Structure formats: C-alpha cells, structure tokens
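Lab meeting notes turned into a lecture example. A postdoc, R.K., suggested we walk through two folding results consecutively so the class can see how the record format repeats. The first protein's sequence and structure tokens come next.
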Amino acid sequence: MADYSLGYGGIGSGLDITGMVEQLVAADRKPADNRLNRIESQAKFKLSAIGTVSSAFSTLDTALKALKAPTAFDVRTVKSGTDTVAGASVSSGTPNGIYNVEVVELATANKWITNTPVTATQTFGAGQLTLTVGGESLAIDIAEGATLQDVRSAINDAARSKGVQASVLTSNDGQYLSVSADKTGAANGFTLAFTSGGSDLQSLAASLQERVPAADAEVKIDGLTVTASTNKITEAVPGLTLDLKTKGTTTVTVSTDTAAASKLIQDFVTAYNTAINAINASTKYNAESNEPSALTGDAQMRSASGQLRALMGDLLGGLAAQGLDAKTLGLQTKGYPTSDGTLVFDSSKFTAALTADPEKIRTAFTGDTAFAGRLQTAVGSYIGTDGAFTLRTNGLNAQIKDVTAQRTALDARMEAVGNRYKAQFVALDSMISQMNTTSSALAQQLASLTAQTSS
C-alpha cells in the first residue's frame, strides 16, 4: 500500500490529511478489490474441483490402458502334480492346457575318478597329460616330483577355463584323483589321457574310470521326446519351464490366473466409480444449507458424466449381446434406489465366466475397439496435453494470473488517486492557513480601531 503520510497533520487546518486520504483511497479501491477477490476465489475453487476430477480420470485412464492391453489376460498359473519329479514355472501368454510329463533321463555332468589309491607323499616324474573336451585337446604339463595335489593343481590351472576341474578325494585307503565337468550334457563330456612321462603318471591316467557319464536330459511331453543339455526344459512349450528333478511322471497344468484377471476388472471398476463420484461431489447441491459445490450446474461436468454413463450403458449392452450379461459376467451399474452411475462387480461370477471361456473374455475387453479401448478413448479426451480438463485448467490459471496483473495495475492507479487527494488536501490546508492569517490580521485591526474610538 502506498504511504500518504506527511509526517505532520494539516498545519493550517489541523486536519488528519493522511488518515483522510487513506480512507478515501480505500473507499475507491473496495469495489475493484471485491471484484478481483471474487474472481480469484471462484477460479481457485473451480480449479481445485477440476483437479480432483482430472486426477480421477487419469487413474481411470491408467486402469483402462492395462485392461485393453493384448496381454491383459495372459497371466498364467502353473502346477505340477508331482513336484519331486519336475517343478514348473510359467510366463505370460503360455498356452493353457494339461501336459503329461515323463522324465526319462536326467542331464548329468561327466565325472572320472581313479580306482587306484596313492599315498599323500607319492610323487610323479615329469610328463604330460592331454585333456580333450568338446573336440578340443589341451596339454597339461606335470613337473618332476609332483604330488597328487600338484597334479590336481596343474589340471585346474590349464582346464578350468574349459569347464573342467579336478579335486583330490581322501578315503581310508589313500588318495584318489577326481576330475569332473562343470556343465551337464553330452556335449560337455571329456577325456583325460596320458601323453608322455614315466610309468607312474601313465598308471595314474590309466586308472581313471568314468563314474558319471556326460548325458542329456530326456523328457516326454504328451508323448513327444525332448532332449536338453541341462535339467531345465525351456523350449518345449512356449513360456513353460520344467525343472527336472528325478525320473518319473507328473502332470503339469497351465491355466489363466483368474485372480490377476479379476484384479484388472476390479481396478477398473474402482477407478471408474472414483471418477463418477468425483464429478458427483463437485456438482452436488446441498438443499439443506442452500450451498452449491464448486461446479454445480457446470456444463462440462454434466457433459463428462453424461458421456461416461451413456457409453457405459452402450458397452454393457454390447457385452450382454455377446452372452456376457450381468448374471454371467458379474459387471453392472448400481441399481435402484442408489443408481448413481457407479458400477458393481461380482468377482466370483467373472472368475467362472473367465474359466469357462477365457478367449471370449479377452476378445470382449482388450484392444482399441473393444470395451476397454472405447472407454479409454473417451476418458483420454479429457486429460493429457489437449484434454478438455487440461484446457479448462489452463484457462483458470490464466484467469488467476490476470487477476494478479489487475491488482498490480490497481495498486498503481490507487497510488495516483491517493497522491491527487493528498495534493488537494495540502492545497486546502494552505488556503485555510492563509485565510486564518488574514482573519487574524483583520481581528487585530478591528481591535485597534475599537481602542481608538473608545479613547
């Protein structure tokens, strides 16, 4: 607020010029202030309500995008009848079905162990062994005076990068050399043979016996044979992984995850009801207190609510025409006496319908032209960069910004008015001062004339 203080009262008049100027300016300013306050208050009131509705529509948009996705109902559950034979896991989109699984052979890693014990102090002469794995041969040099522990280390140093490692086993009758492959499968088999050196090293190599052959896993799925180098079968059925544990048979059942699918519908219903309730709350009128809400009678809100309700009625009618009515699907609008446009959902009915015909449910809900896609298109027209609610919000923010600019202009105008009042009162004070001076002089002259007459 401008400062109109003179630092003193009216010298000639004794008037409170500062107070009078401030009161006159305040009186001049009040109508404009009231108008700007009213515009700003109403804009902010509407802005808050539209923000609540817009947020609810954004949540609904997210739920509908998830529901219309081609993979919306592709979440699967899997169960193996005998987990001790084969465990099972599944990814999205795996074909539903019951698969008869027979584990014929497990994949094994090649292992060789010497059958002749040696003492901990026995040493070997210098020589060379040859490791052959995957069609590739690798020379392993053994130093003069090497113990069995040294032979093991020489094998590990040379062969670990090829997936082969050695260890020394100790039993009651001595030490044994064990050499094994890191990976299962026939392709990972190996041999370790004597190449050169003394008879002691030759005898060590010759005593190696294959204890575990390198073998692929073999499994029959619905009678079809599948082999793999590991005990995880991943390519037989798309998305299905079998973890083979022992020989035997089991039944693996893959089915639609009805709980996940039901949650998609429930999330949509919750978001839809929140959007409808947000509109209802922002437009309601309290007859008892005679108080309107922020958007009571608002045309845009009436249009949004009407569009959603009409489209929902059309979509539910379309589902019913496909044999997915309320009794079958469990989805319907709330009925009398609380028919407020919201939805009710019976997950047990939906689960039964989904179990009976999952592809029919998928077709009815997913895609741009089905239930979720059509509703999402309508909802999307209100949000986003060019959405109706976004443009309305931008307009209200611009209105509030304009009020701020008008207040700045009003401040400048009122300061000029105050300065004009101030100048007028100062001039008035000066005039009164002059008149007081003249009056005083006249009074003195009259007093002097009276004195002269009396004498």
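The second example is placed directly after the first for contrast:
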Amino acid sequence: MEIISMNVRFAGLLLVTAIFPCVAQAADVSCKTAECHTSIGGTQNMHEPVKEGDCSGCHKQTNPLHPLKGAKSFAMTAQGAALCYQCHDAFGKKKALHPPVKDGECAYCHKPHGGAGRFLLEGGDDQTALCMGCHDAAPFKQKVKHGPVAVGACTKCHDPHESNEKALLKGPVWESCLKCHADFLKSLKGAAFIHPPVKDGPCTSCHNPHGSAIPQLLKKKMPDVCLECHPGLAKKLTAKVPHKPLQDEGGCGNCHSTHFSKSKGLLAGEEKDVCLGCHDTDKLGKPPLRNIKKEIEGKKFLHGPIEMGECKACHSPHGSDFFRLLNKSYPADLYAPYKEGLYDLCLECHEKNLLKFAETTIYTNFRNGKRNLHFVHVVDKRKGRTCRVCHEAHASSGEKLISKEGVQFGEWKIPLNFKITPTGGSCAPGCHRAFKYDRDKPETYGAETK
C-alpha cells in the first residue's frame, strides 16, 4: 500500500510539472533562463539583480505553484518607490522632486529588468522620447536647439530625481551654463565690463535654455530682447534716421559684445575702431557710407572727439531725428542762415555766442578788428554758409580743421587757399576774391563786402 501511495504522488508531481513547466525549481535555476521568462535580460544594460539571477530581491512567491491560471503566484517584495529603496538611496531630501519620484513611480522612466540605455532607460543615450512622454515637445522642436537638447542629453543640465534648484537643475543657472561654456568663463574673468544679466542674473534672462526660432537661443530677436531692459532706446530706434546695423540680422550685437567687454558700453572694441569697422569703405549702402577712415588717415589735425576716439560725442549710435545721426541740430544743406537752435551741435562745445554778435573782441579770433567774420559767413540771410563749407568735421591737414582740399560743391571742390598769420590770415576761395583779415590792424574792404 505504501509503494502504491508513493507512485501516485510521483505521478501527480509529473502531471503538475507537465501542466505548469515554470513551477519553482531548484535554487540554482534562474527565472530569466526558464521557458516562461526568456525575454527578460535580453537588453544591453540589465538590472543588477536580473544580471545575477536574483529575482527574489524584488519578487516573492505567494503560492507554491507557478504559474497559476487566472491568478498570480508572485508579488513584489515592496510597493512603489519602497521597492527600489531596498537597494537604492531614498529621494525626498531636496526642495524639488521630479513628479514620478514624488509619486513613487520609478518605473515611469526606468525599465525594471533592463534597458537599451544606461540607468535602465529605454532608447539609449538619447532621452528625448523618454522626456517628451510627459513634457511639452514644442520648445524642443525649434529651429535653433541648445546642444544638449539636440542630442537628447536632458540630464546634462537637469537632475532626473531631485534638486534644490528650480526646474530640477543640477546647480544654479549661471553655474550650470559655465560647466560647459568654460571658454566663456575664462574670457569673462579678464573682462573690464560685464553685462548686468551676466553678472547678476541668470542666463535665461535673455536666452531660452532649450530652443528658439532666433539665433543664439535668444528669447526675442534683437533689438527687442535688449529693449526689455533698455526701454529708453526704443525712441531712438524709431527715429527719422536709424542706425542701419540695428536693422541688420546681428542687431545690437553688430556693435556690442553682449556678455562682456574690455571697452565701455560693452562695445566689441574701442569706440572709434568699432565705427571704422563699417566706415572704412565707400562701397556699402545706398547712399554709400562715408569712408571716414580714409578721411582721417594721415591727417595732421583731428577734431577733438575723433582724437579722443569718441564718435558718440557728435553722433547718436542708435538713431536720431537729425542729419547723419547727429546728436543735435545741424543743417543738412550746404547753405543755412543761422537762427537760434539750428547749430546746436557745434555750439554745444564751441563758443555759444559765436554767431550772435556782428562785432566782438572775445567770442572769436576769426575777425577783422571787431568784425565777427563767423557772423559774416554764417548769419547771412540770403546765403548763410554752414560750418562744413570751410571746416572738416573729422580731420584735416590744415589748422583749425580748415579744409585743404575744399568743400564738395556739385562736381567741384571749392579751394580755400587759407593762410594763417599771428594776428589774422587770408583766404582766396573759389567763391570770392582774396581777402585778408587782421584782429589788431583791420583791413579795409570795398563796398562789395558790406
């Protein structure tokens, strides 16, 4: 009877094994090599317990028979994040938690048995598809992409679990950016002038960290992005005479170094050099730019602001309502009789009473006795001559910036033939006969000069 009973039990075991081939077997047989779980472990990067065949680290058998038709014979050894925290350090000690971490749903991002990418992630090292499963994809599909975004390296900047910084950044914005932009940091340390948003604020004040439709990942095109902090310049940009570089693609960046500089005003170089970077040819623009570099090259006498390298003393670099981007009023025409306010540009630095009195002994040395010859030339109601009829605005080989070559008068340059003496001088221009003048011993002129 005992032999028959043993045979029956053995036959029953064979029947169960035949029906349930994955029944728990000897401890040295791993689940991933059994007939039921052949797909587990077939990935490039396996979870360590899977790699070692230690399924019991996460799974516990709740029924001696496995599998059970219509029921489960295994359960997890813990629920949610508590399962992972059996081996991994727990999160939740920092200010910001990634929502899946906060909800204890590690499997939202990680494959529990293995994944194509590191850290049991699906999709290899490109994390784009994984992150876009929850996040809005629009910012990541822009024309211009941040380098890490372009290759799906989201965790280069963001911590995937928790952080003390906003947006789960691995560190403060400034520090996060400089971890890659090391060349920028090196130059920044030697800069005399730093743009306040770079020095005091986050890089994201001006740049989108993921993508933009605008070069350099700017939030807005130039000059709009600059006007958010420099609203006072808006009026200049809509002036009658705009500075053309501001209308070009580079905008403010055509003249300014947007992060830091060795020059005042964050200029890309010394002020005069920046201006002459464009004003060194007469082939650009319609009408063509004046070749100022050629005009001043080799000249013995420079206008004071040019000598100091300050073009902005006379010109507004952003825009102006006046002729040639001038800071103040000055006639655009060659002839313009003086009236109050018309010559404000020149009279801002030069003697303010220069053109107010027909006779003087103090306001000008260009006089015949007491007769103010500036007044004679400029205040003439019929044909008042502007300053540039005799003087060069930037540089000259002649004293007092008197033009040696003469002013352009249509197709002819009117020669001045100016000569200076200790107490006066003389000129014999193409517009009148030779005249002398003397402050101490006045010359006597004919009736035509009255």
